[in-house]
Specification:
mainly beta, Ribosomal Protein L14, four-stranded antiparallel beta sheet, two-stranded antiparallel sheet, about 10% helix
Length: about 110
């Protein structure tokens, strides 16, 4: 898997749109685990699971995480890896990323 990726752009929407939790982004691999499927420099798709920028929920509460994180997905929207580290946002459930929800240790 990739240790570090750099977001290129959110898929869909207008120019200059900012990616939020649950958005699919195109990204490039900056740092990869040795002997992994994903190679450095490849362009991939990923779904954003955590952001430092706070997100307002429908009930009026806000959620903010300590870091930005994403999970690499294939064309069908299934995660490429078999593990997810750290908590993920509840918004993934609304976007139908159930496999990521089940792999995550905690859903906030």
């Amino acid at each position: 898997g990739a240790r570090r990726i750099m977001a290129i752009t959110p898929l869909g929407g207008s120019v200059g749109r900012i990616a939020r939790i649950g958005d699919v982004i195109s990204a490039t691999v900056k740092e990869a685990v040795p002997e992994s499927k994903v190679r450095k420099g490849t362009v991939i798709r990923a779904v954003v699971v955590r952001t430092r920028k706070e997100l307002r929920r429908k009930d009026g509460s806000y959620i903010r995480f300590e870091d930005n994180a994403a999970v690499i997905i294939d064309k069908a929207g299934e995660p490429v890896g078999t593990r997810v580290f750290g908590p993920v946002g509840r918004e993934l459930r609304e976007r139908k990323f159930m496999k990521i929800i089940s792999l995550a240790p905690e859903v906030l």
